[in-house]
Amino acid sequence: MFELKFFNDINDEISSLRYEVFVEEQGIDESIEIEHDEYNYLHLCLTTDNQLAAYARAKACSGVFHIGRVLVKREYRGQGLGRKIMEYGEKIGLLNGCNIMELNAQHHAVSFYKKLGYIGQGEYFEEAKIPHLKMIKNI
Ligand code: COA
Fold this sequence. Notes:
Elements: E1 2-7, H1 12-25, H2 30-33, E2 42-48, E3 51-61, E4 64-72, H3 81-95, E5 100-106, H4 110-115, E6 119-127, E7 130-138
Parallel strand pairs: 4-5
Antiparallel strand pairs: 1-2, 2-3, 3-4, 5-7, 6-7
The protein binds coenzyme A.
């Protein structure tokens, strides 16, 4: 069983899982991972057995739902939870008056987002020393 919910600010469980995946696993600089204005985002959470297993951060701006920091806890990957948190993002995006989903995909995750209907825009660029591609999806 899993549960989907969102929070209006970051909490300890979220920051700890983001640290585990982005800082420890991917080597992203800790100083840029958590930002000063996390309270300006929606924090989308998928829990299973009361444990945070998948997460994404989102913000609505002029009809576009910007998604970021998408992750699935390592031991839960490959079970469809990444798809579930992204589909939840679309639902919350629509509820926030958005018809476009937008994200910057890390190069290794581009095929994952393509499977979910995202289309790459322009050229790859570097962010946090990782090649990224802007991708969008109409919802
Ligand atoms: N490349 C290609 N396809 C992928 C993929 C990848 N890296 N990861 C998943 N897929 C495919 C799956 O095979 C599945 O296809 P299917 O529906 O045909 O069976 C579909 O995408 C959905 O996969 P799912 O099981 O929901 O993905 P996941 O739970 O493993 O989560 C990530 C995918 C990318 C979120 C996860 O690997 C992760 O957290 N990585 C570390 C953090 C990260 O890099 N986040 C992305 C930042 S942009």
